[in-house]
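call fold(seq) -> tokens
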Amino acid sequence: MAETSAIPLIVYSRHQEAVEIINSTLRNAGHPVHCAWVRDLAAFGDALAQGRAQLIFVCLPDAEDAAPVMELRDRQAAAMPVVLVRDTVSEDGLTRALELGARDVVTLKARPRLRAVAERELHLARLDTALAGTLASAHQYRDQMRAFMAGSTDAILHVQEGIVVDANPAWIELTGLKDAAAIVGQPLMDAFTPASHAALKGALVATAQGKWSDHSLKATAVLPGGGEMLLALELERFDFDGEPAVRIKVPTQRHDSVSITQQLAEALKLDTGTGLLKRSAFLETGRAQLAQPLKGGLRAVLYLEPDKLAALDSDPGPLALEVLLDSVGAMLREQLQPGDIGGRLTGRGYAVLIERGNTRDLDAFIRHLVERVAGHVFQVGERSLSITASAGAALCAANKPLPGPLNVAIRSQRAAAAAGGNRTLRQEDRDESRAEAEADRTWAHQIKSALMANRFRLVQQPIASLVGEDRSMFDLVVRMLDERGQEVLPSEFLTAASRTDLMKNIDRWVVGAAMSFCAARKPHKVFVRLSRDSLRDETLATWLEQQLKASRIEPSHVVIQVSEELATRHLKEAKALQQLLARLGFEFAVENYGSGRDPGQLLSHVPVNYVKIDGSLMQGLANDRPLQERVKALVEQARERSITTIAERVEDANTMAVLWQLGIEFIQGYFVNSPEEVVLGN
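ret:
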């Protein structure tokens, strides 16, 4: 307890001897005290007024003599500790001293106890000083926080353990609340629609754990009177009153002359009723999008229109019908994912140009849109309406203009509506089907040439952890270079390779290249997929053993994956492959998990290390409660068997937040890196 500067004490005593004993006792114990000796109440009052003393000793023979001293202390420095010094210590004397406000009673004869009591009181005094400083800082921080909240033009909420603890004026104004009391103290979820709850809960948990950074979360706020508002939320962790909290912010748009001009130009392209692009702007933007090379997966255009519009035109009437159509368009806009382009194509229908990993993702997205319309109750004036819609879709080829597939999508929608409505239809271009055989022959020649000239290469797609594990994990996919060195997407050549019996050759190139990648880069895990041809290849075991000897890698770094459909259709071969891989030290994964009728049954027959939950289940997951329950059941199936879960083709922050809530351990896809889908033959 030694101090670098003197510790000020006050000793009230009529005799100097008491001062000297106290001074020497504490100094000999290593405490550099400075004792101010006072002999009467006037001098005592002056010493108290200086406010420097940390401890007072009152050396008077009788407790009643100390009463006036204690009263003066109470008036001028009530918090300053006092120790009475008496000739003897008794229970009655100690009780009376405590009644007067003293901390303890000591004698000058028992110096060890005198020292112990003084050390205790000095320590407590220091703690009180530190606490006072902390409280002062906390009050200052709170004042600064209140000033920040009041002065910020950003709309801000502070949330602790799911409860709103503060809301600034900008939030009150944005959401139309009467005052802060309308939301402070209420559960955060009460301020948002049920469809937003899963994503909000996941984002709050991730933010509180310090795992959420710079992601914009979409959530629909509930407004007074029953209205709704779609908000783009930013979340960050901070301390509120010394406890962890989450700040939710809706940033204010910053305006300058350039951005205002740009915003005006963009606004002129939008349909005012829905926020989607106008017809001309949609066609122009779509044309520009199709001119860009596709990084992976496929492009498609879909057309959606409410069913039985003729009946709605007469009841509730033309004007009400326009309000209803605007509501359908606004709902469609909320479902768009990053990179999607949506527009009002006709007076009664909407088109969307999208990029997805494969046709399953495409079909799941379209199906989700139709189900959302059918499940929603639209408010038109004072009436509540329930309607259905139909949608058609067509794939977009790189070398064809947008009007071609768009016309196919519209015709498909018309056919779906004529078949009863509330359904989807995707038709392939007949010309493409007729040219398939000829295209396969061309692709087969190019693939063989690329294999001989070693014009294949790997592309790595990171797999990100949601549980904090900092491990380098990659999904490895193949790209082919044509004779001019231009990259060819797997969606363009792998299907033809499957139909022309060339997949086994490509698989072996990919696995061999993956082993070389492991030897050079030392990743924690790499995932490579096998096709049906390799699954049924009886020479695979010998070839893998040779590759292991040549590469000298640790086989557990390589995870071989097959699709759920392939493993289910060829269950005997899948089980044999798993046993082979386990014997050699490789790990095994099933991708597209959850796409079949009974995925859990597959796991009971084929032990795996990882399951990749199908990317089609990510379409609309953020606001689809039944779909969330389905994914949760898949996670629980895997967890019961100690299988690691990975979500495929995660494309936005809301989906990631829901997956956090559902217990998914890893994700891959657009949100981590650009989607890289490999379509394999079954």
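The chain has a mean pLDDT of 86.
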